[in-house]
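Box 3.1 A note on notation
Throughout this textbook, protein chains are presented in two layers. The first layer is the amino acid sequence; the second is a token string describing backbone geometry. Keep the layers aligned when reading.
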Amino acid sequence: MEEYRGNGISKMLMSAGIDHLKQDGYSEIRLSAFAGNQAIKLYKKLGFSIRTVTMSLQL
């Protein structure tokens, strides 16, 4: 929701989730995002990197 954007809520939630998974012994987190998703900037700031690219062609 627009009114909540830019307040750092997503970053806090993602960081808490990452910390929880680290404590549980996980060694990797994977996620998927559609091209153009605003959240990709956040994921990159948190240290995620692009590992695969999926391409499609609309017919």
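Residues 9-23 form the longest helix (15 residues). The two ends are 32 Å apart (CA to CA).
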